[in-house]
Amino acid sequence: MVMRKTELILQEVQKAVVGKDEQAKKILMTMLAKGHVLLEDIPGVGKTMMAAAFAKAMQLETKRIQFTVDVLPSDVVGFSMIDAKSGELQFHKGAVFCNIFLADEINRTSSKTQAALLEVMEEGQVTIDGYTQKVPSPFTVIATQNPFGSAGTQLLPESQLDRFTICLHMGYPTQEEEVEILKRKQTPASYEVQPVISACDMLEMQKECEQVYIHEHLLIYIVELLNATRNHASIYQGASPRAGISLVNMAKASAYLNGRDYVVPKDIVYVFQDVIAHRIHIKQDNGNIQKKTQILNEILLSITPPKAEKSK
After folding, report:
1. Are 13 and 57 in contact (CB under 8 A)?
2. What residue stretches are annotated with the ATPase AAA-3 domain (predicted)?
3. Residue 79, exposed/middle/buried by CB under 10 A (0-12, 13-18, 19+)?
4. What does the alpha-carbon distance between residue 86 and residue 74 come to, in Å, rounded to a whole number?
5. Do 101 and 250 fall into the same domain?
6. Given CA atoms 297, 303, 309, 312 in this order, what sign does their dihedral have?
7. Residue 138: is the preceding peptide bond cis (ω within 30°)?
8. What residues form DSSP beta bridges with 168?
C-alpha cells in the first residue's frame, strides 16, 4: 500500500515533467529522508515545474518566492512588530511557514537573505527577536538556481550548500521528449497534476523510512568514502560529517522506495554523487578543472563495499 502511494506521486509528477524520472525519484527520496533539494541548471529546463508538480501531487501547503536582490530576510522567515491596539509584540510569519517552500533562483538574492534559510533548513524552526517557532511538518525546501556566471547570480555560501541533501541537474530533453512536451502544451488540462497523498501520509512514510535498517559495516563504508574525499589529491575541501548523515538518510530512502527494510551497498552508490558533488571543491590540475563526477567515481571504485546485511 505504501509503495502504491509513492508510485502515485511519481505518476502525477510525470504528467508535468517529461523524461526526468530519475530526478523525480531522487526528489521523492529526499522528501522521505526529511531533506532539501537544490535543482541547478540553465533556465527553461523544468526546474520550477518539477518542484511545483511535487507540491501539487502531495496536497501540501506550498509557498514560493522568486528570489531577487530586493527580497529581504523578513520576507522569508517573518518579522515582529508592535500591535497598535494591544501594545504587544506580535510575530508575523514569513513564507517558510508551509510544507514545501519553493525558493526559485535562490542564487539571485543577497547573501543575507540566503542566510535566513540556514536555521529553518537545519532545525525546522525560525527565531526572530528571541521568539522561536517551529515550521509545519513535513517541511522541505526545494530551491532552484541558475549556473554561476549567469546574469545576476552569485555563489551560495558553503554553509548553505551543505544543508541541501542533494543537488540535481535537469539537463536538456531528448528530441522525442521535447516533442512530447510541445504536444502536452496543446492540451494542458489533460496533464494537470492531482493530489494523491496528504501531509499525514507523508509523515507516516517518513517515519517508516527512518526505521529502515543499516548495518554498521555499511556505516563504516560510508565513513571510508567520506575520508577518501578528504584525502584525495584533487580535492582541497572534502565532504563534511553532515554529508555522511545525508548519505545514510538517502540510502535508507532508496531502500524504502525499492521495497526493502534494510540498506544494501547499491543504495549508497546510487545516491553518492548527488549527495557529495556539491559539497566538495576540486583543485586545478595542469590548468584544467577535473570533473567532480570522475573523481567521485574513482573514489567509489577504490573502496570495496561490504556485503549486504539484512538484520542485526
Report:
1. yes
2. 36-165
3. middle
4. 22
5. no
6. negative
7. yes
8. 39
Do residues 106 and 156 touch, judged by C-beta distance below 8 A?
A: yes
Is 195 inside a domain boundary? no
How far is the C-alpha of 8 from the C-alpha of 120, rounded, in Å? 29
Neighbours of 59 (CB within 10 A): 16
* pTM, 2 dp: 0.90
Measured in degrees and rounded to the nearest 5, phi and psi for residue 283 equal -90, 170
In whole angstroms, what is the distance from residue 63 CA to residue 44 CA?
A: 21
Please check whether residue 77 is in contact with residue 120, taking contact to mean a CB–CB distance below 8 angstroms.
yes
Note the helical H segments in 17-172: 21-32, 47-57, 73-77, 111-115, 118-123, 158-161
Q: What is the DSSP string of 76-93?
A: HHEEEEE-TTT--EEEEE
Q: Which residue has the cell 540535481?
A: 168
Q: Exposed (0-12), middle (13-18) or buried (19+): which is 111, by Cβ within 10 Å?
A: exposed
Please report the pLDDT score of residue 286 as a whole number: 43
State how many domains the chain has.
Answer: 2
Q: What is the pLDDT of residues 166-199, one digit of tens each?
A: 999 888 888 999 999 898 888 877 788 999 999 9
The verdict on 163 and 254 lying in the same domain is no
Kindly report, residue by residue over 10-66, the tens digit of the pLDDT. Answer: 999 998 899 899 999 999 999 999 999 998 877 777 877 888 888 889 888 889 999
